[in-house]
Amino acid sequence: MVPIDSSGFLMVEEKxxxxxxxxxxxxxxxxxxxxxxxxxxxxxxxxxxxxxKDDREGHYTYNLGENLTPRYKILSKMGEGTFGxxxxxxxxxxxxxxxxxxxxxxxxxxDAAMIEVDVLEQLAKNHKGRSHCVQILNWFDYRxxxxxxxxxxxxxxxxxxxxxxxxxLPVDLVREIGRQLLESVAYMHSLGLIHTDLKPENILLVSSxxxxxxxxxRTSQGETHFRCLPKSxxxxxxxxxxxxxDNQKHSSIVxxxxxxxxxxxxGIGWSYPCDMWSIGCILVELFTGEALFQTHxxxxxxxxMERVLGPLxxxxxxxxxxxxxxxxxxxxxxxxxxxxxxxxxRAVRKLDRLKNMISGCVSYGGLRSCIVxxxxxxxxxxxxxxxxxxxxxxxxxxxxxxx
Length: 403
Fold this sequence. Notes:
Distance between the termini: 111 Å
Largest sheet: 6 strands, antiparallel
Helix content: 25-40%
Shape: globular
Number of strands: 14
Number of helices: 15
Order of helices and strands: HHEEEEHEEHHEEEEEEHHHHHEEHHHHH
Structural class: alpha+beta
Strand order of the largest sheet: 1-2-3-4-6-5
Radius of gyration: 31 Å
């Protein structure tokens, strides 16, 4: 029995024994083991950064080395556009590099991003063989920004041309790129999808590797210009945020200006052929090194089209909507009297006929005629007369590889 004094308290000797006993240590008193410390450090590295305000345009603000959710570490900025930014990230789960499109936190861009996610998932679901369309790996909504995770690819054709000082690409390379582009569009059209924003910025080389070759020009000091050629011609089509379903109502304006089809400018309705017009403009750019229609105004754009391809068909002019009627008088384009400046008139005047443009880039007569025939077929004013994607793929330029 424990001795107790008359007051009912433990006797002093026993109290001292009780006091000297070690109390049981609670878990939060116990020092972490090396393994637990390492796990805590990993958790600390993977936490998201403090929430910041977006910039004035709704772009996500970040610092390199931070996390975009615990899974992705931000390594660099790969690009920026109207939609938002593309970040190169390290995927801790797959231990590989990815490209993440972080969309601006503005309603219309978020809506477009969700359309793109739907299209990408449909493209992936129906994918049979090689579609030449970028593959979606994941998507999530992070701090009011739609984030779409893609496989990491190489530079765009635009960036490659720019790096190459806008040198024309070799005919065989244009043929391979053109064939793949047509195959990707054929795949989309088979699903009832119209890309509507085909341009060199939205066509990416799969690999960043390239060869550096001596160019055909020398400077006045005798120095040789070098040009770059991609080691692989494999491409993938990106940016499906403007993709339209053929069976749904279409917006009045689509495509980036330089690649916009005449039926869009005239407001007479558009469908699959608007993609084919854009492909024609892209091929001319790859052959010549320069965008075909470098303009920012509708009347000047139409004047450039007529300068390169001949007069617009009267039946298309007569169908022009109210917004486009002002560009014509008695079914003829009001040019040059409607020009906004002398610079605009000079810009149109310096353009050449399409066949002459190609003649300056392709020396062999038979091949040149073949290319010109293809381009005129893709750049027919009347969308009903324009080559379909199947007809373009069956064109001799893409069937013959021994020109």
